[in-house]
Task: inverse folding
């Protein structure tokens, strides 16, 4: 059986220490409060009940007025999300709008924003999927291109693999040399061998190069604790930095390639000897 993968839900991603604004707060004070606390948004209460929310873009410190009635957005079902919503569905939802709220009994229990995609649960989820894909790519390469050293892998990459392999041999725990290749090296091999990228489900080498390179870049950002979503304000095509939609598309590539490889019989989690 395939190994169990870590699942991440909206409840695990959301911020749960929820502070709120009172409807009678002056807009300028609300803007200052959001900025001082680094909040993207906050629920607005009246008589101890949530009636709406305020986003940082809704107010400025120059705004006049005595309350937030004209600035708040009503807290309707469109802005609510279930705590058990899956990670992929969370991504889809955050593409549509930047903030959602989790609810309990007459209270807001959590706030979910695009910035929450840069937290530990998201990293664990993505690292688990990318590692699983890495295992599948190794099995594919060993089958389709056992002489993988005769591909565009650089001399430095080969030296690094050999050093790792020799260390493992010295410890009497050595596996096949390909197990000591980094993900970027697996990407190079897979995209240079027609039988590999075609089995992954790509229709062109260019498409394989582009989409697997995005996975490599994401893998590096996950591993080195870099921002996973660099642009939380926009999902436009020409936006700078990885957006929520970019992350969604890269995760879709991971899922698609895994599915295609498993359909082709490559399943490192399945013990073929039994």
Result:
């Amino acid at each position: 059986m395939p190994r169990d993968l870590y699942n991440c839900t909206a409840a695990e991603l959301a911020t749960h220490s929820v502070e709120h604004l009172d409807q009678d707060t002056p807009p300028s004070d609300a803007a200052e409060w959001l900025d001082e606390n680094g909040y993207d948004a906050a629920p607005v209460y009246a008589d101890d009940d949530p009636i709406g929310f305020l986003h940082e873009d809704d107010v400025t410190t120059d705004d006049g007025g005595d309350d937030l009635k004209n600035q708040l957005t009503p807290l309707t079902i469109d802005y609510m999300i279930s705590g058990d919503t899956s990670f992929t569905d969370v991504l889809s939802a955050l593409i549509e709008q930047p903030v959602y709220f989790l609810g309990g009994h007459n209270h807001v229990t959590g706030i979910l924003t695009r910035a929450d995609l840069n937290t530990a649960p998201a990293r664990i989820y993505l690292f688990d999927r990318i590692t699983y894909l890495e295992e599948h790519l190794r099995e594919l390469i060993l089958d389709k291109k056992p002489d993988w050293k005769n591909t565009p892998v650089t001399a430095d990459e080969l030296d690094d693999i050999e050093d790792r392999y020799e260390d493992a041999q010295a410890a009497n725990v050595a596996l096949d040399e390909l197990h000591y290749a980094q993900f970027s090296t697996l990407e190079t091999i897979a995209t240079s061998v027609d039988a590999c990228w075609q089995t992954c489900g790509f229709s062109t080498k260019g498409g394989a190069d582009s989409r697997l390179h995005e996975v490599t870049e994401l893998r590096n950002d996950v591993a080195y604790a870099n921002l996973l979503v660099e642009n939380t304000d926009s999902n436009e095509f020409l936006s700078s930095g990885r957006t929520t939609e970019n992350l969604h598309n890269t995760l879709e590539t991971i899922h698609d390639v895994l599915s295609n490889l498993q359909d082709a019989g490559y399943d490192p989690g399945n013990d073929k000897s039994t």
